[in-house]
Amino acid sequence: MALLMVVCAAPARAQTEQPTESTRNVEFMPRTAFHLAAEYLADEDPRYVWDADFGGELDVVDYGSGRFTFVGNYQVVLGEEIRSFDPNQGNYILAGFVSARIRGLEVAGQLYHQSRHLADRPKEEAVDWNMLGGRVLRGFAYRQATFDARADVRGVFMKTTVDYSWELDAGVRSDVKVRPQVGLLATVDVRYLGVDGSRDRGNQTGYRVEGGVRFEGRAGAIEVFVGGERRIDPYPVEVGVAQWVNAGFRLLSR
Q1: Best CA proximity match to 195, nearest among 171, 230, 159, 170
Q2: What is the pLDDT of residue 124?
Q3: Are strands 105-118 and 127-142 parallel, antiparallel or unpaired?
Q4: Residues 244, 46: contact at Cβ < 8 Å?
Q5: Strand boundaries in 143-180, DSSP class E
Q6: What is the pLDDT of residues 173-191, one digit of tens each?
Q7: Short-list 156, 141, 57, CA closest to 99
């Protein structure tokens, strides 16, 4: 990553000093987007009480016709089995995207990794998987509303413990301005997970719906939301699904 930044920085500096036809559309690190979120889970299982995550996206280089984006995220789930705030798992996502902009769409190839870990509990086997796939993004505006749609299709090429083979992960988000710095938001995300049959179960379906209010400031924004979720394999070393109502907040950079 450090070597790539150094290599990409040279054309970015050249653009500032002496722009040419070949370099004027190349930008080094033109966009960053970081978040910190926490939510309460209304569930009877004492393992699932709080869920928090933080991470971000970094466009390492935008070459005009597309971009290279790096994504990282850490999630912690807290219950109340041992103590009032009992972290029982920590999960990591790392991904990279190389995209092309084609007639209002952004089409990307992606490399995706996720690993899952228990906290304050023994776990000898690794739980992780690596995937290759594609992504399609589309955003558009209508009057005071903006819409962003996403669809990811990925296939597993390396895994440990899990029975995952492929997945379709898609979502739509809408933001409607009601005041200059206040907006209403709604999101729907659906995940369809293909499995290999080694755990004696069929393909799995999960979803998340969310509605809330967004308040914008000069340096950032905060979103307050309520929603519902059906999560596939909520505990790293078990298979199954869990459903709950959730409420929380999200801090965003601008």
Answers
A1: 159
A2: 83
A3: antiparallel
A4: no
A5: 145-160, 164-179
A6: 999 999 999 999 999 999 9
A7: 57
Q: Which range is most confident: 14-18, 118-122, 194-198?
A: 194-198
pTM over 0.90: no
pLDDT at 63: 95
DSSP state of 10: H
pLDDT tens profile 229-238: 999 999 999 9
Contact 163, 239 (CB under 8 A): yes
CA quadruple 203, 169, 252, 244: dihedral sign: negative
The pairs formed by 174-177 with CB atoms below 8 angstroms and a separation of 24 or more are 174/145, 174/146, 174/147, 174/148, 175/145, 175/146, 175/214, 176/144, 176/145, 177/144, 177/145
What is the rounded CA–CA span in Å between residue 186 and residue 144? Answer: 14
Q: What's at 105, amino acid-wise?
A: L
Q: What tokens were used for 117?
A: 């870990």
| pLDDT tens by residue, 39-71 | 999 999 999 999 999 999 999 999 999 999 999
Query: How are the residues of the chain apportioned to helix, strand and coil, as percentages rounded to the nearest 5?
Result: 5, 70, 25
CATH architecture of 29-253: Beta Barrel (2.40)
Listed by start position, the domains of the chain span 29-253
Rg (CA), the chain: 20
* Both tokens assigned to 163: 């029975």
Contact between residue 172 and residue 207 where contact means Cβ atoms under 8 Å apart: no
Q: How many CA atoms lie within 13 A of 242 on its CB side?
A: 18
Residue 18 has pLDDT above 50, yes or no: no
